[in-house]
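It would be a great kindness if you could assist me with a short task in structural biology. The matter concerns a single protein, recorded as an amino acid sequence and a row of backbone structure tokens. Could you please explain, in whatever detail you think fit, how the structure tokens follow from the sequence? Thank you for your consideration; the sequence and its tokens are set out here:
___
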Amino acid sequence: QVQLVESGGGSVQAGGSLRLSCAASTSIYFANCIGWFRQAPGKEREEVAEVYIGDGATYYADSVKGRFTISQDNSKNTIYLQMNSLKPEDAAMYYCAPLCTLGPSPDKFEYSDWGQGTQVTVSS
């Protein structure tokens, strides 16, 4: 079973930047698409960005458009999420998963194999 491990979280001030990494235990081509999700305390998990591995197409939630950039490094089996101009409302636990719901063909299956995530804290 493929494992995805998130890292790169931390604590920053509003306006700062972080780069999250999602490292796969095998080639990222195991997935059609990989998404980044976040969940803040008391809120539902939401997807913020996704990348289609084959053609590199990317989609973003409106709340992060223009500030976050998702990218892939096939040689390192890693998906990145560059987060700029961070706001306090971006604070959450961030996860990656082979699940995509933002683009024109959203996945309909349930995904349950969530990893440990990586914590992002943004102070005002």
Strands lie at 4-7, 10-13, 18-24, 33-39, 46-52, 58-60, 68-73, 78-83, 92-97, 118-123. The chain is about 0% helix and 45% strand.
